[in-house]
Each structure stands twice: as C-alpha cells, then as structure tokens.
Amino acid sequence: xxxxxxxxxxxxxxxxxxxxxxxxxxxxxxxxxxxxxxxxxxxxxxxxxxxxxxxxxxxxxxxxxxxxxxxxxxxxxxxxxxxxxxxxxxxxxxxxxxxxxxxxxxxx
Length: 108
Hints:
mainly alpha; 4 helices; rod-shaped
C-alpha cells in the first residue's frame, strides 16, 4: 500500500536532486546571466574567464579595453621620446613630450 503524499514527496525530492546536479554543472555570469554547462571544474573556469573578457556588462571586459588603451598611450610616448632623442634638439624633445602628455590628459 503506497501513500500518495509520500509518493509525491519522493517525486519532488528527485526533481530537486536533478536541479542540484544541473546547478553543480553550470556557471552563471552575474552581470549578464549567461549560463555555461560543464561538469569539469577546469573547463568551467576556462569558460567563465573567456566569457568575462567578452561580456559587455562585466567590468573585466572594460578593464581589458582600458589596459589596451594604456598600452597604446605608452607606445605613443615611447615613440615620441625615441623620435625626439634621435632626430631633434632638446627643445624639440620638450615640445614633443609636452604634446604627448597633453594629449594623454585629454578626456576621451
């Protein structure tokens, strides 16, 4: 003789176990809600790192853009210094560096 209430509880318990397994095998971006599924912990980490670099809502993606802009600024300053040191007088060097620094400080 089976009790319908107990049968219903067992059914609900099985659903919850399945949901736990599903959640354990997924990773969710807290910024955009993208869900990635894998049971392999390292693969899950790799997928999330890759996603962070691409997600428009994730602050890591914005930081990567800023880092690239700073690298470009650095290259520009180094090129200005090299150009000024080898091709120009000290006054030209000062002028070139002043322009590069001013450009770097400009908003945008």
